[in-house]
Sequence to fold (205 residues):
Amino acid sequence: MLAIAGGKGGSGKTTTTLGLASAIDGPAVAVDADRDMPNLHSLADVDREPTLASLGDRDVDALAQSVRGRDDVGVLPAPRAGERRNLDAHLSRLAAVETSASILVDCPAGAGPDAAAPLRLADGVVLATSLCAPALRDTAKTAAMARALGTSVHGAVMTRCRVVPDGVEGLLGCPVLAAVPPADPPVLSSDAVRRAYRRALDRVG
Fold:
């Protein structure tokens, strides 16, 4: 299970989650763990339900909704308000599920318990951040939190930029996997954006 995390909302976590999932050769499921700002389903243009809370003992591959034009990429939206109390349990079931699909989790922003839960359970983390100084500082804190929880930070994806300044890798303590150029919506229809996410995925290994 791969967590996609960042320090601030609007840093490109959701786009990066779906972009990396779409770049995988084989089945993938993108899961929204951001219960306060759930927008993965909107970006993927799928229904709001069924959610992660519906997983239980069900087959995640069958439960996830396919992205239009990509039967091998599924989306599982975040739990609704009445399903929030058991977020840790939902994520634990997700981490334990047997599936041939790669699981990518769109994490909440910040450094609170909700952000820590998917980081603690993930096999690794990819950071997503813009180049603005506050976002970079907060993303460095997210990277430190992941390491404190014992989860490897594979690298960072820089969103909406073409050139990565010197010093970014040192600040984040990890390599920059790709710079994703700005693009008009729908962002993931851009060939340049898709190539950037493919490069990032290749460097994750």
